[in-house]
Amino acid sequence: MDEEYALRMFLEKTLAQAEAMFREQFSLHWEDLTYMRAPAFRFYLPAAIKYLLSEDANGDADAASTFCYVLESRLARDPAALIPIAPAVEDAIQKILANFDRFECSPEAYGDVPSRYKALADKLVA
To answer: What is the pLDDT of residues 78-87, one digit of tens each?
Structure first.
């Protein structure tokens, strides 16, 4: 997924419009977050978080797992993108973990996603 595609997908979208995109099919848009430039990432990340924290994300194991990957990838590749929003991301991680079972994210299919989120949270507060 190239950056140009990510910008076309989100160009001039409001946060509400971006959240609707995530709600419709998170699996089509998580890569956009992974590869877009840092300012766009910081702008649109709250829309993804809002979806994940909503009841609409219940049963969306793919979203729970891939969102973790997005954060891991950004932290490894572009940690500066997360620094200004680290407290909000860490708060979102804690809320995701508080009721993680609702995503129905089986360890057999996805591995130990909660442990990955915990490791991310530890790195963000360090």
So the answer is: 999 999 999 9
Token readout for 124 is 């963000």
Written as six digits, the tokens of 107 are 């360890």
Kindly report the pTM of this predicted structure. 0.85
Please, is 112 exposed, middle or buried when counting C-beta atoms within 10 Å of its C-beta (0-12, 13-18, 19+)?
exposed
> Taking a C-beta distance cutoff of 8 angstroms, is the pair 107, 100 a contact?
no
In single-letter form, the type of residue at position 55 comes to: E
Report how far apart, in Å, the C-alpha atoms of 52 and of each of 5, 21, 126 are.
Answer: 23, 12, 24
C-alpha–C-alpha distance, residues 60 and 96, integer Å: 12
Q: For tokens 């971006």, what's the residue?
A: 18
